[in-house]
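Incident review: delayed structure delivery

Summary: a single-chain prediction request sat in the queue longer than the usual turnaround. Root cause was a stuck worker, restarted by the on-call engineer. No data loss occurred. The affected request and its eventual output are reproduced below so the record is complete for anyone auditing the incident later.

Affected input:
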Amino acid sequence: MDPRVFLELAEELSERTDSEAAQRTSVSRSYYALYLLLHKFLKSKGISLPDTAVAHERVYRYLHNCGLQEVRSVASHLNDLRDERNIADYQLEETEFRDARVASLLFNKAQKAYDSFQECISDEENAGHVVRGINAYRKKTNT
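Output delivered after worker restart:
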């Protein structure tokens, strides 16, 4: 499945201003669309990730430390979206998602990061730089 499908669903859900559940689910799908794109890229380049929740943190750390500023920015957006996703999914007493603008803003953040990453790695030189940077980081940190 193409992770972009989750992004499309997140957009549809963010437009449902009558439902806090739709807003919260939009935030979750926005995060997962970006996470799955990044995860898929790393695995396609032979970078192993555990089949546990630790993978979420590793995807962030690997990309944040790859040495390419555009990708570091994407990783920062991923981390921000993960924090918001955790609030949306687990902190039901929080009221911020009653405002439909929140989910819309987070969807837009995910969309921009998603597109930015795809554009960046469409250049083979950049993709190679990312992989080499991650491998150097992994060697240095023993992860």
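Verification: The CA atoms of residues 6 and 33 lie 5 Å apart.
Action items: add queue-age alerting; document worker restart procedure.
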